[in-house]
Amino acid sequence: MNIKSLLLGSAAALAAVSGAQAADAIVAAEPEPLEYVRVCDAFGTGYFYIPGTETCLKIGGYVRVQVDGRSDFDLTGAQGGYRTNTRGQIAVEAKNDTEYGTLASKITVRANTNDPVRGTDFYLEETYLQLGGLRVGYFYNYFDNGLPGETVLSDGGPGFGGGGFGGDTLNNSIRYTYDAGSFSVYGQVDAFNSQAGWKTDNGSDDEIGVNGVVTGKFGGVTVDFFAGYDFDREEAAFASTLTAAIGPGSLGVFAAYATGANRYFDFAEWTIGAEYAIKVTDKFSVAPGVQYWDNITVVDGDFDAGDAWRVGITADYKITTNLAAKATINYTDVDSGTDSADRWDGFLRLQRSF
Predict the structure, then answer these.
(1) Is pTM, for the whole model, over 0.85?
(2) Is residue 218 assigned to a domain?
(3) Three-class SS state of 11
(4) By CB distance 3.0 to 4.6 Å, which of 35, 45, 234, 275 could disulfide with 289?
């Protein structure tokens, strides 16, 4: 065998071995593409798509630290002092479009370290589902809307009422809303205190109420009118709120009237109050306010005598993005018809929202 034949044979052998190794080589699989979270801007800011779905999710809430203070109140024997409380709240909202309109749901969970009513446990706040204009679940009614400051009390009075019927603003309810932009109207049925348990057919458990609101917007002015009827108390309540952009701020006026103490309004036969929120700078605003109540003493469900008035001021300061401070101080003078007393109250709050 000559040198040329030997070299050709070696080259052929090497080619055969290389071909066999190439056939047996392990090829790494291509990585699966990842689905990153996409921003959903169909329902406003803060929403994102749940991966793999067309449902938009929004997670928000706040942490609040507050110190409350008050003076003695001889009319009820309440002693003065201070109270501290820290609150945490988380709200989760989900929305998606359907052939019947937007399908929405909201879950709100809240807890306090020093809540005289709820204690310290976590509990549900507004939690409901909604399809188009139909809402069913646990949510607030009209009397918890309020004005920008902390002086005018739309959901009742500053603790001097004699009704004791609850002033329910958060119930299991069903509501339908028609919204045409500058005009909207809703009708609602409330099951008062329905979270307390079974209702019995004993003739005294008609804990049902109906209410409705008509709202109109005219340029910088918004006005609404509320009417509600409590079937258990067989009494009605009426109220209206007007807000208007005037000068450097916004004026808010609230008025309410009740035929007798009922779960919608039970602190007076009628009340009227006003606040004016003034934007001093981009970060600082103040809102002085005043309110008057007439016939605050309740006898057998009927308003009998007495009156009260309240004046105060609220200040808001935006420290930085999503961090704000609020402070208020108020003076209340009460005449029950047989006795009178006055009280100072207020609070200092720090809140981080997200």
Answers:
(1) no
(2) yes
(3) helix
(4) 275
| Domain of 189, in residue numbers | 33-353
Rounded Cα–Cα distance for residues 40 and 274 (Å): 39
Would you say residue 143 lies in a domain? yes
- Kindly state the average pLDDT of the residues 259-267: 91
* Interval 279-299 mean pLDDT: 95
Any domain includes 338: yes
Residue 191's CATH number = 2.40.160.10
How many domains is the chain built from? Answer: 1
Mean pLDDT for the chain overall: 87
Which long-range contacts does 97-103 make (Cβ < 8 Å, 24+ apart)? 97/42, 97/54, 98/131, 100/131, 100/132, 101/131, 101/132, 101/133, 102/43, 102/130, 102/131, 102/132, 103/129, 103/130, 103/131
What average pLDDT does this structure show over 159-172?
A: 59
Helix, strand or coil for residue 62?
Answer: strand
In a domain, 16, yes or no: no
- Which residues are bridge partners to 325 per DSSP? 317, 350
Taking a C-beta distance cutoff of 8 angstroms, is the pair 301, 310 a contact? no
